[in-house]
Write a structure and sequence with these properties.
The complex is a heterodimer. Chain A has 2 domains: 111 residues, Periplasmic binding protein-like II (D-Maltodextrin-Binding Protein, domain 2); 89 residues, D-Maltodextrin-Binding Protein, domain 2. Chain A is of the alpha/beta class. Helices cover 36% and strands 28% of the residues of chain A. In chain A, the strands form 2 sheets. Chain A has a 6-stranded mixed sheet, with helices on both faces. A 5-stranded mixed sheet of chain A has the order 8-7-9-6-10. The longest helix of chain A has 13 residues. The radius of gyration of chain A is 19 Å and the shape is elongated. Chain B has a single domain, classed as Bira Bifunctional Protein, Domain 2 (BirA Bifunctional Protein, domain 2). Chain B is built from 13 helices and 12 strands. In chain B, the strands form 2 sheets. Chain B has a 9-stranded mixed sheet with strand order 1-5-6-12-11-10-7-9-8, with helices on both faces. In chain B, strands 2-4-3 form a 3-stranded antiparallel sheet. In chain B, a hairpin with a 5-residue loop joins strand 3 and strand 4. Chain B is globular and about 70 Å long. Chain B starts with 16 loop residues before the first helix and ends with a helix. Classes of the chains: A alpha/beta, B alpha+beta.
């Protein structure tokens, strides 16, 4: 176990490297995590690694005391009963509404057909966004490359996460609206937040200083 | 031959004899404590008129039906509102304090998961006509007795005050309208959003940092001491409860200055029950000094409910810990 006595859920993927750098900076030794990308549970340092979208599941159930994941994941899982403690600042990307370049096909669909079709992996985020902005949208949930959907005529628009915009540009898509900017967040289980208050506060303190 | 499949609604489940024996052992132990401490058990209908449930400002009913006269009925979401109705209608002239307990199912449209079904059994008490701080201290004491009797070992009680943060906001001149998003962030357990909302208010920097720091404070009685105004005044309610607690109860309490509960009717002390063997609270309660007035009999009141399924899971978890 790490010096804090906390089990930490760490996201694999784009947030992994920055997360491990931060953990190193606050005194959690991540050498073993870096050297082994097949192993998932590192009991000696109190780290478990998983997909970012699984982090709230483990933290809510108390299988991990704290975890790090993107705001995009938290927005898509609003029902999770976890504390959001700190904006870690890294992993910045934008949740955007994008369509094919040229005249906006989603505006035309809305005007003439009353409903726009939108492909996304973030169906709750997208549905809440269109509800908030008073537009009728049919959400088409896809699992793979969202960019394909408007190119084939499946939908008029997509809601997706973009860091640099390169993939959008390569597929002739342009950003029409920005929903929010997502960064990495530290979250905590509500019971651990009370019963391990000193450890969690110490971790927060060190992360703020790091 | 394959057995026939007759599904049951999402969020409900059957309890079979092995589990039932364990649940019974828990409820019998808890019932013994409630009866001994003077809380008489009541039953009320699972279905109430929607207008009665709505009067209480609690969670809206998740399941509604029409009766044969076209009236809208709702399945109760907790027992606090039905008992408030009972007190106002059946005990209209009775001398307070009144003590009731219940073992009853409540119904909510939650995402069903471990320890949280849509139909769930609660055990709890309502202490009506006993104001703070004595009523609150009595409820906390009964709560500890009940958990001890159930055999739970490592539980703690988080104790906060629903009026604390609104009082601080008022003291710093934040209007109800401007304070709404702050309370929403607090209920959503989102301190990142709280910090953002505080930044938007254009408060004095020390005031803003206090409003961000205070709801993250939790710990022993030391967190109630040494505060300056206006925080010291806002902590007065919690201090007066703390002074009344017997050592075995006080030792279980974690003061949590950010604790809020999502039901609208809480007015003062609020509390949650935690156990290291479960990642979610086993139950909770608090003061609802305005609720009875909405039913026509203004009396201060306090109560709590334990979710029996969660208590059972925590007891099983502690058993496993003990074996390790």
């Amino acid at each position: 176990m790490n010096g804090l006595g906390l089990t930490i859920a760490v996201p694999r993927g784009a947030l992994l490297k920055d997360t491990l750098d931060r953990l190193d900076a606050i005194g959690v030794d991540t050498t073993e995590v870096r050297s082994n990308d097949r192993k998932l549970l590192f009991g000696d340092v109190g780290v478990v690694t998983m997909r970012p979208s699984d982090v709230p599941t483990y933290v809510e159930a108390g299988a991990a005391d704290v975890g790090i994941t993107g705001k995009d994941v938290l927005t898509e899982q609003p029902e999770r009963d976890v504390y959001e403690l700190l904006d870690l600042g890294y992993g910045a990307c934008r949740m955007v509404l994008a369509t094919m370049d040229g005249p906006d096909p989603s505006a035309e669909a809305l005007r003439r057909l009353g409903v726009m079709r939108v492909a996304t992996k973030y169906h709750k985020t997208a549905a809440a966004f269109f509800e908030r902005t008073g537009r009728q949208a049919e959400i088409v949930e896809v699992k793979g490359s969202v960019e394909l959907a408007p190119l084939t005529g499946l939908v008029e628009a997509i809601v997706d996460l973009t860091a640099t915009g390169t993939t959008l540009r390569e597929n002739n898509l342009v950003v029409r609206e920005e929903l929010f900017v997502s960064t990495a967040r530290l979250i905590a289980n509500p019971v651990s937040h009370k019963l391990k208050a000193a450890a969690i506060d110490a971790m927060l303190e060190r992360l703020r200083a790091a | 031959m394959r057995p026939p499949i007759h599904p049951i609604p999402s969020g409900t489940r059957d309890v079979l004899p092995d589990e039932m024996r364990e649940l019974r052992a828990i409820t019998e132990a808890v019932r013994g404590v409630f009866e001994r401490d003077g809380y008489g058990e009541v039953w009320t209908p699972a279905l109430e008129y929607e207008t009665v449930l709505g009067r209480g400002n609690g969670a809206p009913p998740a399941y509604r039906v029409f009766d044969d006269h076209g009236e809208v009925l709702g399945l109760r979401t907790d027992m606090t509102i039905p008992i408030a109705r009972v007190v106002a209608t059946r005990y209209a002239a009775a001398e307070p304090p009144l003590r009731f307990c219940y073992f009853a199912h409540a119904y909510r449209a939650v995402r069903p998961h471990r320890g949280q079904m849509r139909e769930f059994l609660q055990a709890g008490i309502e202490l009506v006509g006993a104001p703070a701080p004595h009523g609150t201290a009595e409820a906390l004491t009964v709560l500890c007795h009940a958990l001890d009797a159930a055999g739970l070992r490592d539980y703690r009680i988080g104790l906060g005050d629903a009026s604390l943060y609104p009082r601080l906001l008022a003291a710093f001149g934040v209007s109800d309208e401007a304070g709404g998003p702050l309370l929403d962030a607090l209920v959503g357990r989102d301190f990142v959003a709280l910090e953002g909302e505080l930044g938007r208010l254009g408060l004095d920097e020390t005031d803003a940092s206090l409003l961000l720091r205070v709801p993250q404070v939790r710990g022993g009685p030391e967190v109630l001491a040494g505060a300056q105004e206006p925080l010291a005044a806002a902590l007065g309610g919690l201090r007066s409860v703390q002074e009344l607690l017997a050592p075995e109860v006080a030792g279980r309490v974690i003061f949590d200055l950010g604790l809020v509960r999502d039901l609208g009717y809480y007015t003062g002390a609020v509390f949650d029950v935690y156990d290291p063997a479960l990642g979610a609270p086993l139950g909770g309660g608090g003061r609802y000094d305005d609720l009875l007035g909405r039913f026509g009999r203004p009396l201060p009141a306090v109560g709590f409910a334990l979710t029996i399924d969660r208590l059972h899971i925590a007891l099983t978890g502690e058993e496993h810990e003990g074996r390790r």
